[in-house]
Specification:
The structure holds 2 protein chains of 2 kinds. Chain A is α/β, with parallel strands linked by helices. Chain A has 13 helices and 17 strands. A 7-stranded mixed beta sheet of chain A has the order 2-10-9-8-7-3-4, with helices on both faces. In chain A, strands 13-14-17-16 form a 4-stranded antiparallel beta sheet, with helices on one face. In chain B, the strands form 2 sheets. Chain B has a 7-stranded mixed beta sheet, with helices on both faces. In chain B, helix 11 crosses helix 14. The longest helix of chain B is centred in the last third of the chain and has 37 residues. The radius of gyration of chain B is 25 Å and the shape is globular. Classes of the chains: A alpha/beta, B alpha/beta. Bound molecules: pyridoxal-5'-phosphate. The site of pyridoxal-5'-phosphate has 14 residues of chain B, from helix 5.
Chain lengths: 444, 461
């Protein structure tokens, strides 16, 4: 049915005439007969827009959209100001590609330059790139920046997000690096165990804070230890926490990475999201991916261009710092618009609201009989509960009320996430449900 | 133009979320950020105008012809954007139970079914975020395959033609394989003798784009994959150029074992100013077990919303519309090429596939104007220049890929302008550096940008 051909049947005939061919099959002379699929009658026709939209709406409607959500674990429901959607839908932003021609791509180039600046402000670092695929690949790319021929040993905390862990395991197989885990103790990286794990060949260490359990790692100790040994430190952060929590640069971290999804990007069943990377000035030539720089044009006017391209695959081929080509520009745009409209005070407010709501829910929850904190230690907007009631019973109860339950970590452990969108009334309702389960469960 | 940061006015703000209804949570000082965040302070109106101005400075397919070779800048149907923003797709969590997302399951299963049919593959993975990550997954599959056969240590080389895209060797190197370059013949085909020489028990496999980056379909394709298989290697297909042969020739039938597709090229999902795209990876049965070990190349389930758009495209066009698109992309490219042949030197002598490569080697020697100058001059006629200086084996290259969605009127106009620019430059080569003349900036200084990198704005102190 539908297609988007720009040429009418008559015009096709004119074109064929210009080319002096009878049939368009003549254009495919190089394709061996044995694999050439002739124009067939059995090819199925497509559908009209009306029908496709109808099908897609029906399918979308079968997915459960929860009225409220207590699940995070790497993907977070936040409020997205509608202007973010509208700006990200502007046709030129949507349909253009990598800004290879600066004269007619100043818009995208400036957007990326502003994004790089915002990421530097957020992390306190010197430089950032134009984005990578997601938080997990950002961690992998950061590790790739640090390993050398003789230094292929990489230490990773057990407390990082399991999705990131799986991706890094795969990169271990690819790169031929040697990953070793720093054990977890009480929901935190066991930094006492760290010194003995470091060898001469250790290139870098990767830790996340807040970690998978929501807990803030002991970054002072971490950075001191790493610096003493002359090893590169990589830190994964949740950008939303940086509205109130200490900037990673204060700890002297070498590379800061993270998942930018909380900054104005919808949950979208996991993608597309936004990997960000920021580092110190001296490591800039090792950064992967596109980087935009400011310069002047022929007439001395401010101009932005793709720069330091000698790092990249299209120039360096097998010696490139990474194979990345397409990135997440439109997601980076969303993050920039988000940060620009909320501003520094609004951002701090969201960050504070996440922390306050999460601490409220935790405090009230642990007053309920049979519910205990999973781990001690300060947290941001995620925390673990341990309950006498099986996780599945709690999940079932919440599901009944269209609540996306916390992520089960085991039979009696749940990972909760609370953000600014979980208002008090909603949390009080959840608490009342937990009380019910507790009373029913423990009465038996 | 001013940056966001230069427009900031202290105290300007829009409110988005309610005041706290629960007690404020006070962290201990040691956790607290005592530095101020320098994000801009702007009203929504300021931000709205800022991005509207940036949009005016961004050339998209919505503004004009965009024949960026190797990137397949076809029309991105607008209704896909609406579908991709349905709450049932946007507001679902990646860790929701599978039973709670039958619609998402449908998207993946239907897309897999349709794309397997087009490519001749048995399975399709939607994990990879882009073409390059598809290559990464594909090469990991090949690596795992040899490892399982006890040949992990010995098969350490990968064959890649000299015409290949930069991501191919970069990916192979990332995966610890040594790149061995296979020569191309003058016609742009793979040099079979050279391939035979190189195909031995040390190769893990071959990475190939077909039609290749010169826009030609390699007639020896079945022989090529056979040579590699006989040497015990596997064949990887870079699907960036699938557009001209959809439902005409299948990589599976050519003998490829795994492939990637750039959904943002061939299947019309938008390029977003550089991304996000999506790289679906197809594989044959023999690699399925390997996939179960190396599938995880990124978090969660890939670029779900991009796959949603690609499926809209597949359903709208149907098999017939897909084939018609392929044919038209080739017809349009040849139509343009034919009319440019009397003016420009074009690499392909016979029919090309969906794109062709102009070389300005002679002109740069004899007249002193380069591919870059020609490209810049096109800009003044409201069109995006072709891809420049790619493939690298062609000096002073301009790669033109008109795509099937451009009208004949547009192609005719482009032909006229390409010729006019050429004649103008030939007549007055000294003016070459003056183009473009109509843009907000002219020929930025890229050398000093790289020499003294200024990669972020800083507050003046
Ligand atoms: C031939 C070829 N292979 C691979 C790629 C990489 O694809 P992506 O940018 O989606 O990573 C491209 C992109 O331009 C390409 O043209």
């Amino acid at each position: 049915m539908g297609n988007y051909l720009g040429v009418t049947k008559e015009q096709q005939e004119e074109m064929k005439h210009v080319l002096n061919i009878q049939s368009t099959d003549d254009l495919y002379r190089d394709i061996p007969d044995s694999i050439f699929q002739k124009e067939g009658t059995d090819l199925k026709e497509g559908l009209s827009q009306l029908e496709v939209i109808k099908i897609m709406k029906q399918k979308a409607a079968t997915n459960t959209i929860y009225a409220s959500c207590y699940r995070g674990a790497g993907a977070y429901r936040h409020f997205i100001p509608p202007i973010v959607d509208l700006i990200a839908q502007k046709e030129s932003f949507v349909t253009s590609y990598t800004p290879y021609q600066p004269e007619i791509s100043q818009g995208i180039l400036q957007i990326i330059f502003e994004f790089q600046t915002l990421i530097c402000m957020l992390t306190g670092m010197d430089v950032s790139n134009a984005s990578v695929y997601d938080g997990a690949t950002a961690a992998a790319e950061a590790i790739a920046m640090c390993v050398e021929k003789q230094k292929k040993h990489v230490l990773i905390s057990e407390t990082i997000n399991p999705e990131v862990k799986m991706v890094l395991k795969n990169y271990e197989f690819a790169f031929g690096i040697e990953l070793e885990f720093i054990p977890e103790k009480n929901g935190k990286t066991d930094l006492h165990a760290l010194p003995s794990l470091i060898t001469e060949n250790t290139a870098c260490i990767y830790v996340e804070s807040p970690n998978f359990f929501g807990i803030l790692e002991d970054l002072d100790t971490y950075s001191t230890l790493v610096k003493e040994k002359g090893i590169k430190s990589i830190l994964g952060v949740n950008p939303m926490s940086l509205g109130i929590l200490k900037s990673p640069s204060v700890y002297g971290i070498d590379i800061v990475v993270g998942e930018g999804q909380p900054l104005g990007i919808p949950l979208s069943y996991g993608g597309p999201y936004l990997g960000f990377m920021a580092t110190k000035q001296e490591l800039v030539r090792k950064l992967p991916g596109r980087i935009v720089g400011e310069t002047i044009d022929h007439d001395g006017k401010r101009a932005f261009v793709l720069t330091l391209q000698a790092r990249e695959q299209h120039i360096r081929r097998e010696k490139a710092s990474s194979n990345i080509c397409s990135n997440q520009a439109l997601c980076a745009l969303r993050a920039s618009v988000y940060l620009s409209v909320v501003g520094p005070n609004g951002f701090r407010q969201v960050s504070n609201s996440c922390a306050a709501n999460a601490h409220y829910l935790a405090e009230e929850m642990f007053k309920i009989h049979g519910f205990y904190r999973g781990y001690p230690g300060e947290f941001f907007h995620e925390f673990v509960s341990v309950s006498q009631i099986p996780s599945n019973d709690i999940i079932a109860k919440l599901e009944e009320h269209h609540i996306l339950a916390p992520l089960p970590l085991s039979e009696n452990k749940l990972l909760w996430c609370v953000t600014e969108v979980n208002q008090k009334e909603e949390m009080d309702f959840v608490l009342s449900l937990l009380k019910e389960v507790s009373e029913d469960g423990i009465a038996i | 133009m001013e940056l966001l940061f230069e427009k900031t006015v202290s105290g300007r703000q829009t409110s988005y979320i309610p005041e706290l209804e629960v007690p404020f949570y006070q962290y201990e000082d040691k956790y607290l950020n005592e530095q101020s965040l320098d994000f801009p302070e702007l009203s929504e109106l300021d931000v709205s105008r800022h991005y509207s101005e940036l949009e005016r400075r961004t050339f998209g397919i919505n503004q004009g012809f965009y024949p960026l070779g190797s990137c397949t800048m076809k029309y991105n149907p607008r209704f896909h954007e609406q579908v991709a923003s349905l709450p049932g797709f946007c507001d679902i969590h990646p860790l929701q139970s599978l039973e709670s997302v039958p619609g998402a399951k449908f998207i993946y299963e239907k897309s897999e079914e349709l794309l397997c049919k087009i490519t001749g593959m048995d399975y399709m993975s939607f994990q990879p975020a882009a073409g390059a990550q598809g290559e990464f997954l594909g090469i990991l599959l090949i690596k795992k395959f040899h490892e399982k056969n006890g040949e992990g240590g010995t098969r350490s080389k990968i064959l890649i033609p000299d015409s290949a895209h930069g991501t191919n060797p970069a990916t192979a190197a990332l995966c610890g394989l040594n790149v061995v370059t296979v020569r191309s013949t003058n016609e742009g085909y793979m040099d079979l003798n050279h391939l035979r020489e190189l195909a031995n028990t040390e190769i893990a496999g071959l990475m190939l784009t077909n039609p290749n980056t010169l826009g030609v379909f390699d007639p020896n394709i079945c022989e090529i994959t056979k040579i590699v298989h006989e040497a015990g290697g596997l064949c990887y297909y870079d699907g960036a150029n699938l557009n001209p042969i959809m439902n005409i020739a299948r990589p599976g039938d050519m003998g490829f074992d795994c492939i990637h597709l750039n959904l943002h090229k061939t299947f019309s999902t938008p390029h977003g100013g550089g991304g996000p795209g999506a790289g679906a990876v197809g594989m044959k049965e023999l690699l399925k077990e390997c996939y179960d070990e190396v599938w995880k190349v990124k978090a969660f389930h890939g670029h779900f919303l991009v796959v949603v758009r690609a499926l809209c495209y597949l359903l709208t066009l149907g098999e017939k519309g897909i084939r018609d698109s392929a044919v038209q992309s080739v017809l349009s490219a040849n139509y343009m090429k034919k009319q440019l042949e009397d003016t420009f030197t074009i690499k392909q002598k016979g029919f090309c596939m969906h794109e062709f490569v102009i070389t300005l080697e002679e002109e740069s020697k004899n007249y002193g104007f380069r591919a870059l100058d020609v490209a810049k001059a096109f800009i003044d006629y409201q069109m995006y220049p072709p891809t420049m200086y790619f493939p690298q084996i062609i000096p002073e290259a301009l790669m033109v890929e008109p795509t099937e969605t451009e009208s004949k009127e547009t192609l005719d106009y482009a032909v006229e302008i390409y010729k006019k620019v050429y004649q103008d430059l030939k007549r007055d080569p000294d003016s070459a550096k003056d183009y473009p003349k109509t843009t907000p900036i002219h020929r930025p200084d890229e050398v000093s940008a790289a020499r003294n990198p200024k990669l972020r704005w800083r507050k003046e102190t």
